[in-house]
Amino acid sequence: MIIVSTDGSCLRNPGGAIGWAWVNHEGPSASGGSPCGTNQIAELQALLEAIRAHPGPEPLLIESDSQYAIKCASEWLPGWKRKGWKTSSGAPVKNLELVQDIEQEITDREGPVRFRWVRGHVGNHYNEIADTLAGEAARAAEAEGQSAPTSVAVPEPIAVQPAADRAKLAETAQTTAAPIKTPIAAVQAAADEQDGELTLF
Asked: Is 131 a catalytic residue?
């Protein structure tokens, strides 16, 4: 199974520069940005780019700290499609183009795609790397005022603090981060993308 962590960043939500990133737990990583968007757009773009970058028959598990993005790509998507891309209240689906692109990539991929929610900013190694890369891509997009695609290799496992910069990453390069385990009892039904605790497979 291929496991990939994704994250999105928006410097001033909504309307500020955004960045997205994905990190393969055993391979490369990639990130990119745009000068204007929302945190939801950034999170969905990260999922989309991760699926596109990992074709083939092997199962793909995407980890994200965005409950919104995970639900858009799994739980909510079938119902929206049946209703002509409308929500349960009849309103148009937000970020529809991205949602449809994700649905198409999942459909076209030979192997299955699954999603798992992880808590952000608690020392989850690959989530923290994705967070750092997404933030850097957003800042680069803001500075350049244009799309800012980048690609980097995944570093050795390290413990990363939520606000750590590259200097901190270098200082802690030999420290192994402990994996996060979220008990099922912690699952909540709230759809708040920052605080939601839903794990989907």
From this structure: yes
Number of domains in the chain: 1
Given the residues 33, 37, 54, 65, the one annotated as active site: 65
Closest CA to 29 of 115, 137, 110: 137
CATH number at residue 71: 3.30.420.10
Residue-level pLDDT at 157: 43
Please confirm, yes or no, whether 156 is among the known catalytic residues: no
Q: Is residue 200 part of a domain?
A: no
Tens digits of residue pLDDT in 97-140: 999 999 999 999 999 999 999 988 787 899 999 999 999 999 99
Q: What percent of the chain has pLDDT over 70?
A: 72
Is 7 labeled as catalytic in the residue annotation? yes
The pLDDT of residue 53 is 97
125 catalytic? Reply is no
Q: Which domain holds residue 78?
A: 2-186
Annotation marks residue 84 as catalytic:
no
- pTM of model > 0.85: no
Instruction: Quickly list H helices, 76-189.
Output: 77-82, 96-108, 125-144, 166-171
Q: Which of 75, 101, 121, 123 is catalytic?
A: 121
* Residue at 196 is within a domain: no
Handedness of CA 58, 61, 62, 63 (dihedral sign): negative
Domain membership of residue 29 (yes or no) is yes
Residue 193 lies in a domain: no
121 a catalytic residue: yes
